[in-house]
Amino acid sequence: MSSTRLLVLGVVRIFQPVHGYDVRRELLSWRVDQWANVAPGSIYNALKSMTRDALLEVVGTDQVGGRPERTTYRLTNEGENEFQALLREALWRVRPPVDPLMPALCFMPVLKREELIAALRNRIPQIRGQLEHVDFAVAQLPNPGTPEHVKELYRLSAARVGAEIPWAEALIQRLEQGEYEIPHPAEVAREREIRATAAARGEARRERAPRRNGARSNGARKG
């Protein structure tokens, strides 16, 4: 939530007084939904909640034709203080970024060693492709309307993504050398138990089938 508040306050600060629609459009043009995990719908919610919290104030409303009414916002003094506090907190306080690969690593011993190695090898060229994309994007900046410092967003993203390559290569080497019990013995035992249970159920069904068939035959003869 603090990222959404910082971004919304910052955009209102730049363009104030500004319509909520324009705040949303500007932030989505920055692709904040991709690198800041800001959902498009949360932008309007943030505008409303920060207005209730007296961080923003409504300057006015207008309506063009049959379109929905649009509200114009600007920062209050409290909103400026909150923006400055969030900005400095984000710069000075280090938090580990959320990485969707981390949950998968928790269950690494479930998969076979060969699949893990193949998956890691498959990720490396994808990452290199992303890094190449960033190089082209940075080379095309600045373009009209894009501040020079936006390059640093691309460079930070590339640095974090690119750090996975040496880690993945080292993990592949460790896996190839036999490190880690993969699949884990508990996982192997569980798989064996599942297979044994399935086999027992199949055998039980096969044993019951002749009995049912025999019962049908006896009923036919009595008839």
Number of helices: 10
What is the radius of gyration? 30 Å
Low-confidence stretches: none
Report the top-level CATH class of the largest domain.
Mainly Alpha
Report the β-strand fraction as a percent range. Answer: 5-15%
Keywords:
Arc Repressor Mutant, subunit A; single chain; 3-stranded antiparallel beta sheet; 7% strand; 223 residues; mainly alpha; 10 helices; 2 domains
Write the layout of secondary structure elements.
Layout: H1 2-15, E1 18-19, H2 20-29, H3 32-35, H4 40-52, E2 56-62, E3 70-75, H5 77-92, H6 101-106, H7 113-139, H8 150-162, H9 164-176, H10 185-222
Antiparallel strand pairs: 1-3, 2-3
Concise synopsis of the structure shown:
By secondary structure, this protein is mainly alpha-helical.
How would you describe this structure to a colleague?
By secondary structure, this protein is mainly α. The protein has 2 domains: 2-92, Arc Repressor Mutant, subunit A, CATH 1.10.10.10; 101-176. Helices cover 69% and strands 7% of the residues. The chain contains 10 helices and 3 strands; from the N terminus they run αβαααββαααααα. The protein has helices at residues 2-15, 20-29, 32-35, 40-52, 77-92, 101-106, 113-139, 150-162, 164-176, 185-222, and strands spanning 18-19, 56-62, 70-75. A 3-stranded antiparallel β-sheet has the order 1-3-2. Strand 2 (56-62) and strand 3 (70-75) form a beta hairpin. Helix 1 packs across helix 2, helix 1 packs across helix 5 (77-92) and helix 7 packs antiparallel against helix 8 (150-162). The chain is elongated. 11% of the residues are buried.
